[in-house]
Amino acid sequence: MQQSSYRLTLWLAGLAHAFSHMFVLFYATVVLALEREWGLGYAELFALSIPGAVLMGACALPAGWLADRWSASGMLAVFFFGIGAASILTGLMDSPIGIALGLALLGVFASIYHPVGIPWLIAQAPNRGRALGINGVFGSAGTAGAALVAGFLAQSLGWRAAFVVPGVAALAAGLLFLWAWRGGRLAEAAVAVADTPGRFSSDGLRVFTVLALTVTCTGLVYQSMAYALPKLFDERLQGVLGGSVLGIGGAVSLCYLLSAGAQLVGGELADRYPLKWVYLGCQVALAPFCVLGFALFGAALLPIAAVVVSLNVMGQPAENSLLARHTPERWRGKVFGAKFVLTLGVSSLGVALVPIIHAGLGQIGPILLVLAAVAVVSAAAAGFLPRSGRRSGPAGRLATAGTGD
Question: 3-400, which class in CATH?
Answer without folding.
Answer: mainly alpha
